[in-house]
Design goal:
The protein is an alpha+beta fold and 115 residues long. 30% of the residues lie in helices and 37% in strands. It has a single domain (3-112), classed as Trna Endonuclease, Chain: A, domain 1 (3-Layer(aba) Sandwich), CATH 3.40.1350.10. Strands 1-2-3-4-5 form a five-stranded mixed beta sheet. A hairpin with a 2-residue loop joins strand 2 (32-40) and strand 3.
């Protein structure tokens, strides 16, 4: 298994243990991909999982730059176009140093805003 896919599975397990419900993994559309879509109560969470073994260039959080955020927002809007009514939403980031280590996950709730 590729480390990125393993990191996404680790993050999904972590979030489910925190009480979130997995709706969809690896949602793909013409705008890009959303790693995980979950429910946190009434809120729909679009989660980006980042694995970085080194902290060079700002680590995992820095890799979710403005361009990546824009692509995630477009993909989320595409997903939301199929849902009525649109629920409250947020974008979270899950930052992992190791693909299989839940204990070291940094969970950034509301990492950025829907455009």
């Amino acid at each position: 298994m590729k480390s990125g896919a393993q990191a996404e599975q680790t993050a999904a397990r972590f979030l489910q243990r925190q009480g979130l419900q997995l709706v969809e993994a690896n949602y793909r559309c013409r705008f890009g991909e959303i790693d995980l879509i979950l429910r946190d109560g009434a809120t729909l969470v679009f989660a980006e999982v980042r694995l970085r073994s080194r902290a060079d260039f700002g680590g995992a959080a820095a890799s979710i730059d403005a361009r990546k955020q824009h692509k995630l927002i477009l993909a989320a809007q595409h997903y939301l176009s199929r849902i009525a009514p649109v629920p409250p939403c947020r974008f979270d980031a899950l930052l992992l140093a190791q693909a299989d280590d839940e204990s070291a996950i940094e969970w950034v709730k509301g990492a950025f805003e829907l455009g």
